[in-house]
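I'll show a typical protein example:
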Amino acid sequence: MNIFCLVFFCFFLITFNINALERKIIIASTTSTYDSGLLKYLNKHFMNKHKINVQTIVQGTGQAMRTAKDGNVELLLVHHKKSEIEFMKNDYGLTRFNLMYNDYVIIGPKEDLDKCQNIQNKLKNIIENNLKFISRGDDSGTHKKELELWLLFNLDPEKFSDNYLSVGQGMGHTLLMANEMKAYTISDRSTWIAFNRKDNLKVICENKPPLFNQYGIILVNPKLNRNLNIKDAEIYLNWIISEEGKFLINNYKINDQQLFYFNYDK
C-alpha cells in the first residue's frame, strides 16, 4: 500500500468514525430510570445494535417536560400520565405510548410496627402525630404523586409544621435524608430496591391501587426545534416498544427483583 492510499484509508476511517458519532439523540428522563440503572442498560443495548449514541438528561418529570418544550430533546421517558396527556394536547409531542409500570411505596422508620391497612389512615396518622415526612418538592412524577395522595384523602401537608420538609432533591438524596432522620417519604419501587442505605428504613405501605406508577414515552414534535434528530429518535422509539425492548425491560433486575414491567399500549 503506497503512502497516498494509506493516507486516504486513514482519512476514510476518521471521517467514518466522526459521522458515526454524529448520530445522536437526547432523552430527558426521570431520576428513577437513571438511578435504577435501567436507562444505561437499555441505551447500551440500543447503541450496540444501531450505532446511535443516546445522551440522557436526568430530571424530575416536570423539569424534563420543560426541557422538551424548549426543543432540547427528541424523546421523553417520564411518569405522570396527566401531565403527559396535557403535553400531547398542546402539540409538544408527536406520539405517546404507555411503556412500562411499577409502583410507589411509602417508606418509613423500622420502628413503625403498625400494619398499613390503607394509605389514608397511614398518612393521616403521620400528620396527626406530627411525624417527620420528607417531600421531594421538585415537581417530579413522585412529587406529583405525593401531592395527589394528600389531595385524594383531603389531607393538608402544611399541618406538618416543621416536620414536613420539602427538599427539592432527587429520589436518592431524599431517601438518604429519610434514612438519616428516620422519616417517612414516598419512593418509586425501583429506586427503593436499588437504594443501599436502608439502615433505618423499611416499606410501610405497598401494593395499594393508588400507588400504581405508569411510565410513558413521548416523541417530541420537531416543530419545536428543526435540528432535532427525529429520524433516529423514531428508530429508538420503535426499538424500545418492540419485543426486544419488552424482553430487556422485563428482565432487568437488581438483587433478583424485577424493577419495571413492560406494558406498551398505543
Q: What stands out?
A: The first strand starts at residue 24 and ends at 29. The chain has a mean pLDDT of 91.
